[in-house]
Amino acid sequence: MEYQSYSVKDTKQIASSFAAQLCSGDVICLYGDLGAGKTAFVQGLADGLNISDYITSPTFTIVNEHKGDITLYHFDVYRIDDEDEMYEIGFDEYINGDGICVIEWCGKIAGLLPEKRYEISIFKDYEQSDDYRLIKIEKRG
Ligand SMILES: Nc1ncnc2c1ncn2[C@@H]1O[C@H](COP(=O)(O)OP(=O)(O)O)[C@@H](O)[C@H]1O
Ligand SMILES: [Mg+2]
Description:
The protein is an alpha/beta fold. It has one domain (2-140): 3-Layer(aba) Sandwich (Rossmann fold), CATH 3.40.50. Helices cover 23% and strands 28% of the residues. It has helices at 8-19, 38-48, 84-88, 91-95; strands at residues 2-5, 27-31, 63-66, 72-76, 100-104, 117-124, 133-140. A seven-stranded mixed beta sheet has the order 1-7-6-2-5-4-3. The radius of gyration is 14 Å and the shape is globular. It binds adenosine-5'-diphosphate and magnesium ion. The site of magnesium ion has 5 residues, from α2.
């Protein structure tokens, strides 16, 4: 599925609607450059899961936990240089657990992703406008 976003609000709305179909154990992989809107998308997901925490990128902590209808584990693996570092933080247990995992920069840990996952790519297009984003959502596995 493809969605067009013209503002942060649109991106959050698209994410929040997408959240309605999510189940315990789902893994969501986010792709897109710095400033694409990955964290904005997670903020919308959190709204859709009735999470009241303010969501920021867990760049230094790698993972943040947010309680809602289903617990959301928000990863930002930008700083991961070696997939082994993910084992150290217990990544396996998170992705095989009951929460929903959403991962920013997951191209960095491509070898660790489960077959069954959602892949979400966010693209800018300056020919449209500074705030335009194309959001592609694909279900794998
Ligand atoms: N349509 C849009 N969707 C999401 N973010 C947008 C959009 N238009 C402009 N922005 C801006 O782009 C930036 C996205 O930041 P962020 O969500 O932190 O990106 P990322 O996590 O991908 O690095 C914010 O400054 C936001 O205001
Ligand atoms: Mg981010």
